[in-house]
Amino acid sequence: MISLDFTPERVCPRNIHVEISDDGKTIESVAFDGGCNGNTKAVAKLVAGKPVDEIVELLAGNQCRTRGTSCADQMTIALRQAQARATA
């Protein structure tokens, strides 16, 4: 399993912890430290067990208000960074 702690920018959570499969294809788990508790827990439940590529395609670029990003968008960046570790 590949684990990554990611410090997001311009969003409420202080950290996003992602775990993906060793081959970098499947999301094992996601946990947000901070942010809207109900929303971040829901996102984490919805993405667990799903393919990284599917979730990134679906949520990359999602915006919260005028921030130019969102918790879900920042999570996709974390997932891609973890995926890069798996293929390195």
What topology emerges from the helices and strands here?
Blueprint lengths: L1 E5 L8 E6 L6 E7 L3 H11 L4 H8 L11 H17 L1
Antiparallel strand pairs: 1-2, 2-3
Helix pairs in contact: 2-3
What does this structure look like?
- With 88 residues, the chain is an alpha+beta fold.
- It has one domain: Enolase-like, domain 1 (2-Layer Sandwich).
- Helix content is 41%, strand content 20%.
- It contains 3 helices and 3 strands; from the N terminus they run βββααα.
- The chain has a 3-stranded antiparallel sheet.
- It starts with a strand and ends with a helix.
Q: Based on helices, strands and strand pairing, what is the structural class?
A: alpha+beta
Could you give the order of the helices and strands?
EEEHHH
The oligomeric state is single chain
Distance between the termini: 14 Å
For the record, the count of structural domains works out to 1
Shape annotation? globular
Biggest sheet: strand arrangement: 1-2-3
Query: Whole-number radius of gyration?
Result: 12 Å
| The CATH C-level class name | Alpha Beta
